[in-house]
């Protein structure tokens, strides 16, 4: 359900950040216009940061499920509960990931990729037209 909006957000995030950097660099329409562009860039970045932060936290917490299960008092549980705990630990070997259409994993690392792509595209545009 949420895969399509997340994929669009990921793909267009790079272009929108680059576009706002280009606008800041090449626009000479006054301080008010520059501040509004700066505000838009900050809002876009923090929106991307929110998605990626949550994705990273979900992945990080899901990785810790095995360790937390093992450090519990599992040895005092009955046989059925031990089997359930083992099943939980087996399932937790694969971390939970937010991955729209299996295209990209939404974590803080992928946010870094967006920022690097944005800067690379900006540097290319600036070298061509600047």
UniProtKB/TrEMBL annotation:
One of its GO terms (biological process) is signal transduction. It is found in: Cell membrane. It holds the Pfam family 7tm_6. It comes from the Eukaryota. GO terms for molecular function: odorant binding; olfactory receptor activity. Keywords: Cell membrane, Membrane, Olfaction, Receptor, Sensory transduction, Transducer, Transmembrane, Transmembrane helix. The keyword Cell membrane applies. One of its GO terms (cellular component) is plasma membrane. InterPro entries: 7tm6_olfct_rcpt. The chain crosses the membrane at residues 6-24, 31-54, 103-125. The keyword Nucleus does not apply. It is a multi-pass membrane protein. This is 7tm Odorant receptor. It comes from Popillia japonica.
């Amino acid at each position: 359900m949420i895969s399509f909006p997340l994929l669009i957000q990921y793909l267009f995030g790079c272009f929108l950040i680059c576009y706002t950097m280009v606008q800041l660099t090449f626009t000479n329409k006054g301080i008010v216009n520059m501040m509004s562009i700066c505000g838009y860039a900050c809002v876009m970045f923090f929106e991307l940061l929110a998605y990626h932060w949550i994705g990273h936290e979900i992945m990080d917490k899901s990785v810790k499920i095995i360790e937390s299960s093992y450090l519990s008092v599992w040895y005092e549980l009955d046989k059925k509960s031990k089997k359930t705990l083992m099943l939980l630990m087996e399932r937790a070997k694969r971390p939970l990931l937010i991955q729209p259409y299996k295209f990209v994993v939404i974590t803080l690392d992928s946010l870094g990729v967006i920022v690097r792509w944005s800067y690379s595209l900006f540097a290319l545009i600036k070298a061509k037209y600047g």
